[in-house]
Amino acid sequence: MIELRGISKVYRQGGRELSALQDVSLRVDPGEVFGVLGQSGAGKSTLIRCVNLLERPTQGRVRVNGKELLSLSPEELRLARQGIGMIFQHFNLFSSQTVAANVAYPLEVAGLPREQIRARVAELLALVGLSDKADTYPARLSGGQKQRVGIARALAPRPRILLSDEATSSLDPETTRSVLALLRDLNRQLGLTILLITHQMEVVKAICDTVAVLEQGRLVEQGKVVELLSRPGTHLHGLCYPPFTTGESAVLRGGQRVELSLSGEHSTRPILSTLARRFDVDAHLLEGSLERVGEARVGRLLFELTGAPDAVSQALAFLREQGVTSEEAAHAW
Amino acid sequence: MPGELTHSLWVATLETLYMTSVATVLVVLAGLPLGVLLVLTDRGGLWERPALHRVLGMLVNVGRSVPFIILMVAIVPLTRLLVGTTIGTTAAIVPLVVAAIPFMGRVVEQGLREVDSGLVEAAIAMGSTHRRVVFRVLLPEALPSLVRGTALVVISLLGYSAMAGAVGGGGLGDLAVKYGYMRFRTDVMLGCLAVLLALVQLVQWLGDGVASRFDHTSPHSRRAHD
User: What does each of the 226 residues of chain B score in pLDDT, given as a tens digit?
Assistant: First the structure.
């Protein structure tokens, strides 16, 4: 659906060269929600703008909807862009036009007859739940409503791809959730392929199937979100799970400090109660989390294991066997 | 003020209105494309032409730096060519237009530059032609500031027209100099001033009113749209 190969982008400012992207390659499959995660300044914005050539890469190839965009004429590129929707952090709605006129804009660009435009606009506003705001100007809408108009406008010409440029970054947490849920629905119902860039881990966990981590213009990691999150040592795992804040001094019961990584089937097995029953040990929870990511659950736990030394070491062996222990404390107290 | 002079004041007012309104129409017609070109041809613009941009910018700066009184005299040959004479209200329109076009160009340029570049980006991402970006995005978004800027230009034209009048163009400036200054008729002078002041106020009021009518950027607009 979208294929970027060996993309580099160099900005020339005065005599200096600033490299924004270096040899970035990624592939977004049809129907997928693909997230690019990175800090501000990592080059995310440049990357997503290379997909519809708002920025022309210095090097590399851009293939979208089966077309090599860099070899298109300006007119062909203009038509190709009509098949790629885009939403923005600051919505970029036309303030001088009503909500309905904003949504109608890309349809006028596509040259649809007036009656068809009117019908399609009504349909889209219903889709995003803003039918009653058709004649309102954007300035009178809340942030979440503005982004819904942005989404309706982007989807108006029935693109198969939606690019999302930090679409939830200026929204409050609750509105972010509702906008993400809308994007997820659109992805499922319309088979819409979504490429989004974000600096928010929550966005990746909430709706992305696949993620790429961008650092200083380079992709350092790419893979399925659930897999990367359940493998300690990946960049994504490190970003999502910073070191536990419970220091070693918190282990005061003279037991063994244990960290568990939970994902897939492990997340549903009664590991702690099995331990307690089989080995006569106690698990004192210190810190941890378990959450849904897409269809799966992932998480990690930090706890202290107490009991007879033999029992504790047998319990640890059991955990290792299960393949869930990510790390053990260096020493027992 | 005797009836004859009241009549003169009335005629002078009409002359001033004639000069200013014809000049305004021409200035807007020429200044709009000039401002659009200044924005489009600039580095990073939709139609980047750095050489053309520099030439236009220079012409505008030259036009704006020549004092009006000198410009009027300097372009006498052009005026004669266009109007056939260099005296009278119609002849005065030529220097008025020439002087105000660069001003209008800058006003338009500034108005367009205030439009959020994200809107242009969104329009391009939706596959807009450059023509559509200009006419459906840039100009409508800048409309309130274009209207305010035009009011500013009209007010300057009123001022210029008084100056033009003083050197044979007729209008309120002419009357004020001939009667108010040379014949010490303070009443005529004050009458001219009062009319000019009223005109300036009217233009400013109209400009602000129309501009805010087109301005939909405030969430607390007094007008209900929904």
Answer: 677 788 989 999 999 999 999 999 999 999 999 999 999 999 989 999 999 999 999 999 999 999 998 998 899 899 999 988 888 888 999 999 999 999 999 999 999 999 999 999 999 999 999 999 999 999 999 999 999 999 999 999 999 998 887 777 788 888 888 887 788 888 888 999 999 999 999 999 999 999 999 999 887 654 444 3
**Paired residues of A298 in beta bridges:** A263, A291
Min Cα–Cα distance to chain B from A78, Å? 4
**A interface toward B at CB cutoff 8 Å?**
52, 54, 78-82, 84, 86, 88, 90, 92-98, 105-106, 108-110, 132-133, 135-140, 153, 157, 163
Give domain status of residue B223, yes or no.
no
Quick one: pLDDT at residue A249?
A: 62
Indicate whether A172 and A131 sit together in one domain. yes
Whether residue B23 lies inside any domain: the answer is: yes
Does the residue A333 lie in any domain? no
Give the nearest chain A residue to B218 (CA atoms).
A139
The three-class DSSP label of residue A62 is strand
CATH number of the domain bearing residue B31: 1.10.3720.10
Domain count, chain B: 1
Kindly state whether residues A61 and A156 are assigned to the same domain.
Answer: yes
Q: How far is A195 from B107, CA to CA, in rounded Å?
A: 40
CATH classification at residue A86? 3.40.50.300
Domain that holds residue B65: 3-214
Kind plus residue range of the DSSP H or E element containing B72: helix B68-74
Q: A40: which DSSP letter?
A: T
Examine residue B226 and state whether it is found in any structural domain, yes or no: no
A96 and B122 in contact by Cβ < 8 A?
A: no
Count of domains observed in chain A: 2
Mapped onto helix, strand or coil, the DSSP state of residue B43 is coil
Flag if A86 and B219 touch (Cβ within 8 Å): no
Q: Which ipTM was obtained for this model? A: 0.88
> Does residue A256 share a domain with residue A224?
no
A209 and A289 assigned to the same domain: no
Convert the pLDDT of each residue in B145-168 to its tens digit: 999 999 999 999 999 998 887 777
Distance from C-alpha of A25 to C-alpha of A21, rounded to nearest angstrom: 10
Cβ pair B199, B157 in contact under 8 A? no
Predicted pLDDT at B224: 43
Whole-number mean pLDDT of chain A?
Answer: 89
| CATH code, domain with A283 | 3.30.70.260
Tokens of A192: 């819409």
Establish if B118 belongs to a structural domain. yes
Structure tokens of A198?
């974000």
CA distance A136 to chain B (A): 5
| Residue B216 with chain A: CB contacts under 8 Å | 95-96, 137-139
Side-chain half-sphere CA neighbours of A150 within 13 A: 30
Tell me which residues of chain A have a pLDDT lower than 50.
Answer: 328-333
Domain that holds residue A261: 248-328
* B127:A92 CB<8 A: no
Interface A-B, measured as beta-carbon pairs within 8 A, has a size of 78
Chain B environment of A133 (Cβ under 8 Å): 226
- Among candidate residues A238, A269, A298, the one where a domain is terminated: A238
| Residue A295 C-alpha from the chain's centroid | 15
